[in-house]
Design brief:
The chain is α/β, with parallel strands linked by helices and about 270 residues long. It has one domain: Ribonuclease Z/Hydroxyacylglutathione hydrolase-like (Metallo-beta-lactamase, Chain A). The chain is about 35% helix and about 25% strand. It has helices spanning about 35-50, 65, 80-90, 90-100, 105-110, 175-190, 205-225, 230-235, 255-270; strands spanning about 1-5, 10, 20-25, 25-30, 55, 75-80, 120, 125-130, 130-140, 145-150, 155-165, 195-200. The strands form two sheets. The chain has a seven-stranded mixed β-sheet. It is globular, with a radius of gyration of 18 Å. The protein starts with a strand and ends with a helix. The site of zinc ion has 5 residues, from loops.
């Protein structure tokens, strides 16, 4: 965990998404949670040094952002799509997968019940805790349920997986056009310090690179469709971006599978399937 601003602490160096917490005059607010239960417990001990935890905010519906919610006894707030996705998750399969992440995980996952969001929003929501303002803004793209979370007094935005800073971009269920619009929404924010979903802390200078890569992905799959490739052929043949960026921590060896998911999703998107 490292201190990013006066009251924002972030973790960008362990398996799972980036997450962080904000120390306010009335307790701590956690944004996203670790993928590994053992990391969630370490984080819990760390947060306890800074005061009582008040809320968890989740930025998106993928398990690397919410699995750790279960290890904290506070209400969770997120876009309504995040709640729906967690409730629809095959929890036995989810627990079986997370159990493989380390030797301590199977025990910690006994009796696992997710702490799903009980307060949800559609377009946005503002929350005031102590002297801090948390502005949650729906920004569909990487999924339809992404939210950016601005911490106004700190000049910091947790962008969710709409930004993968110099690590492979997952487009397995993305809407690339909405994603590009959300990048422009991020550009318009007053806040300048970005905590991306994955990769190191960045700023608005990275938006062009992220946007260009999404455009490039779209053009690459569109070209294959225009040349008459079927979806199955495209999934096998389109491998050009496999080594463009490294995978994020803990995702070693997953690049070929991610490329295939990205191609399959963009093929469906571009053909209206
Ligand atoms: Zn994600």
């Amino acid at each position: 965990m490292h201190q990013l601003t006066k009251n924002v602490y972030v973790e960008t160096c362990i398996r799972g998404c980036n997450h962080g917490f904000v120390t306010t005059s009335d307790g701590v607010v956690l944004i996203d949670t670790p993928h590994k239960p053992s990391d969630a417990l370490k984080l819990k001990a760390e947060i306890a040094k800074h005061g009582p935890l008040r809320y968890i905010l989740n930025t998106e519906p993928h398990g690397d952002h919410w699995t750790g919610n279960a290890f904290f006894d506070v209400p969770v707030i997120a876009h309504e799509g995040v709640r729906a996705r967690i409730l629809a998750t095959d929890m036995a399969a989810h627990v079986a997968r997370v159990s493989t992440f380390g030797p301590e995980e199977p025990n910690l996952l006994k009796g696992y019940t997710p702490n799903a969001p009980i307060i949800t929003f559609k377009n946005g929501m503002t929350m005031h805790v102590g002297n801090h303002t948390f502005e949650m803004i729906h920004m569909p793209g990487h999924t339809m349920s992404q939210a950016a979370i601005c911490i106004k007094e700190e000049g910091v935005v947790f962008t969710s997986d709409n930004i993968f800073n110099k690590v492979q971009t997952w487009l397995q269920e993305a809407n690339p056009d909405l994603w590009l619009m959300s990048l422009e929404s991020l550009r318009k924010l007053k806040e300048e310090i970005f905590v991306p979903g994955h990769g190191d802390i960045c700023g608005k200078e990275y938006l062009n690179e992220q946007g260009a890569f999404i455009q490039e992905w779209k053009a690459y799959v569109k070209d294959a469709i225009d040349r008459g490739m079927t979806r199955d052929e495209a999934i096998i043949k389109l491998t050009a971006f496999t080594d463009r960026y490294p995978m994020d921590i803990g995702q070693d060896g997953m690049s070929p599978a991610v490329q295939k998911m990205n191609v399959g999703n963009l093929y469906n998107y571009l053909t209206g399937a």
